[in-house]
Amino acid sequence: MDLLQDAGVEVLTGEAYLGREINWVHTGEIADIAQYLSGGEALLTAATGLGQEAAQMRSYVRELADAGARLPGDRARPRLPRSARPR
């Protein structure tokens, strides 16, 4: 995690899970990408296909978590508004 913090990555939620191992890193721009994950992946996305509504973004993050993704990350720019973050 130190390397990610040094690169400017900001943890928005889920600090309790930071110790989990990441098995693979993927990129993807489709809203239903969770179905293609097997667990343990870090997913980097520019969030271009997620929709603009906070509920759509919350659903996307929830589906990634349910699929066992370790780190959904926005590689282009911050797009996930505070209202879309899981509660």
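the 2nd protein, sequnce then structure:
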Amino acid sequence: MFQIAKIHGHHLLPQEAKFAKYWKEVGIDIEKYVLPLPEKLHIRKPNGVHTNLGGNWNKEWDQFFRGQKGPVSKEAILGQLNSMMQARGWR
């Protein structure tokens, strides 16, 4: 018998409140950046993108913004997103 994978919508740009100001400043609608992922790749240990072994997606975004000097452009944000997706083979 086959088991159907549960699919989650992974927000490529985090929904976490502390990031909202960045998306708003550059006019990004995060709902346009959602990737369907199997649950095990999204939140399940050991390698889900929201786990430490999976890279901890929101932590990577936090590190990106902490490393910026001054305002961050839309192009820089989308460049970071592209890099993070490529690192996981999603591009």
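Residues 7-87 form one domain. The beta strands are 7-11, 34-38.
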